[in-house]
Amino acid sequence: MRKLISLLPFFGCIACAGGNYTNLTTEEFAGAVKQMAVVDVRTPEEYAAGHLRDASNINWFDSDFMDQIAKTYPKGTSLAVYCRSGKRSAAAAAKLSKAGYKVANMLGGYLAWTEENRPVTTYAVETFITPAGTPVAITLIKHGTLAISFKGLTYHVDPVSGLGKPTDYAKEFNKADAILITHEHGDHFDREAIAALSGDKTAIITNARCADMLGRGTALSNGESAELPGGIKLDAVPAYNYTEGRTMFHPKGRDNGFVLTIDGFRIYIAGDTEDIPEMAALKDIDVAFLPVNQPYTMTVEQCVNAAKVIGPKVLIPYHFSQTDLSDLPALLPGIDVRLRDMQ
Fold first, then answer.
1. SS3 readout for the chain
2. Which residues pair with 194 in a beta bridge?
3. Distance in angstroms between the alpha carbons of the first and the last residue of the chain
């Protein structure tokens, strides 16, 4: 027997062999993942070939599997786990439940999920837990393009279809609850992608120039704020070039960076900018996305300076093209620098 989806947030767990966790069908699991942190416990190679949306990857076969779990997920977090057929994830669920997590395991695993033609993706996902204990999944799509999921809602940032890594938004994603556009350049502003993600209730937040080009959307200037669906606070912050010979790329006052405050968890998405003085006003940033592709945005040295000024707990460089970032972690001790495929 199984618990109903409506009871999942509170989990009244069922005793299963080896530990107390809940087994769910694929249909039940599809509902549960809107409320839980999703962990794919397969190998990185299996994960890269395709995985559930919003699923991060921690390999069950890693000797430090539990240490990796503990680094991201506080005890008591509700975790939805799956593997290829359900065997590895059942073992993981048993161990996780014994360690104090509330766990659901998907029966039949990825094989059952794909046999039913349920949606999958190939983009890497970073999952974070808010101070209130709610998971926030950030999908690293490409370059300056991200998707953020929270409580079943999805917010897309600078969605772009091309850039060497084609994305079919109509097939790969549901309609967005909000679309955020930092500025007008073609690697950030893509009418086709915006149209594919837009539904009747999709909020579009951008700057004045992009709102004029689209003929719709809410235009924010630097320093202005808005509330996104789901009660998320969005602050528009400056993003510009100041170095002589570069100011024409991103003039001061035109473009936005964004700070999202989600359940007390703060994400800074810098947009196209150098290490501008206004970054000193950014406080309590949990995750920062900083661009590193000179001459259009920052040099590595500028990124290091920006990170030291902002002091995020986690830094994920993005929009870096062919810039060599291999030295960045050593240059920023005390900051969790995560080098990901965001070229």
1. CCCCHHHCCCCCCCEECCEECEEECHHHHHHHCCCCEEEECCCHHHHHHCECCCEEECCCCCCCHHHHHHHHCCCCCEEEEECCCCHHHHHHHHHHHHCCCEEEEECCHHHHHHHCCCCCECCEEEEEECCCCCEEEEEEEECCEEEEEECCEEEEECCCCCCCCCCCHHHHCCCCCEEECCCCCCCCCCHHHHHHHCCCCCEEEECHHHHHHHCCCEECCCCCEEEECCCEEEEEEEECCCCCCCCCCCCCCCEEEEEEEECCEEEEECCCCCCCHHHHHCCCCCEEEEECCCCCCCCHHHHHHHHHHHCCCEEEEECCCCCCCCCHHHHCCCCEECCCCCC
2. none
3. 47
Quickly state the pLDDT bin for 12 (edges 50, 70, 90): very low
Reported confidence tier of residue 222, pLDDT bands at 50, 70, 90: very high
d(CA 47, CA 55): 9
The pLDDT assigned to 165 comes to 82
What is the spatial distance between Cα 72 and Cα 101, in angstroms, rounded to a whole number? 12
pLDDT band at 120 (very low <50, low <70, confident <90, very high): very high
Which residues are annotated as catalytic? Answer: 83
pLDDT over 90 at 1, yes or no: no
Residue with tokens 């495929």: 341
